[in-house]
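Weekly modeling sync, notes
Attendees: S.R. (lead), two postdocs, one rotation student

Agenda item 3: backlog of single-chain predictions. S.R. asked that every request posted to the team notebook include the full sequence so nobody has to chase files. The rotation student volunteered to paste the first one in as an example of the format we agreed on. Action items at the bottom.

Example entry:
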Amino acid sequence: MQFFSVHTAYAATNPAVTDVVQKINQFVLNPIIGFLFALAFIFFLWGVAEFVFRADVESERTRGKQHMIWGLIGMFIMFAAFTIIRIIANTIGVDAPGLP
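Predicted structure, as returned to the notebook:
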């Protein structure tokens, strides 16, 4: 535990480390998470469309339900990843901007 607290203190006091972590978060991680969240949302909407427009075919309705469930799971995972990254960034003292 001592090892983690020493490095956390170093990262919080060193502006170069803070700047690098902030840039990685802002220009790499946040866009990737935002993109994957958008894909999951589109997958969810595709499932809604399948469920509504092909309501007369049981297999298509089931497939639409599965797409909606997997879209919701994907959005939850991306939200959780974003939250974990924010917690880690705040722990080491980096001002982490939100998703664009």
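Discussion: group reviewed the output briefly. Residues 17-91 form one domain.
Action items: rotation student to repeat for the remaining queue; S.R. to check formatting next week.
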